[in-house]
Write a structure and sequence with these properties.
By secondary structure, the chain is α/β, with parallel strands linked by helices. It has helices at about 15-25, 40-45, 90-105; strands spanning about 5-10, 30-35, 50-55, 70-75.
Length: about 110
């Protein structure tokens, strides 16, 4: 794998996004870790001090300025409304899921 450059990882607070952000940093990338709460970013930075946590909600991109010179974008942010079968979700839940999983990622 080629190393170096700048990377942005959405949904980096936990799970796969967190693991990817840390791995990219360990491989020499300057990583901007998208989190929805700065306390999540602080916790992530304690585990990997080289990371740059950035407030990022993919459904509210009007307030976000992506870092320049990105080489890698990992669109990991996602919503699933507590793992309920979709037929049991409300239309508001469907909107939240699509705003995050489809429109937010496309807009970024």
């Amino acid at each position: 794998m080629t190393t170096g450059g700048r990377a942005l990882v959405t949904g980096a607070s936990r799970g796969i996004g967190r693991a990817v952000a840390i791995e990219l940093s360990n491989r020499g990338f300057e990583v901007f870790a998208g989190v929805r709460r700065m306390e999540d970013g602080a916790a992530l930075q304690r585990d990997c001090p080289a990371l740059h946590p950035v407030l990022l909600d993919v459904t509210k991109l009007e307030d976000f300025e992506p870092p320049g010179g990105l080489r890698v974008l990992v669109n990991n942010a996602g919503a699933d409304d507590e793992h309920l079968p979709l037929e049991h979700d409300s239309i508001d839940a469907w909107r939240r899921i699509f705003d995050t999983n489809v429109f937010g990622l496309a807009a970024l």
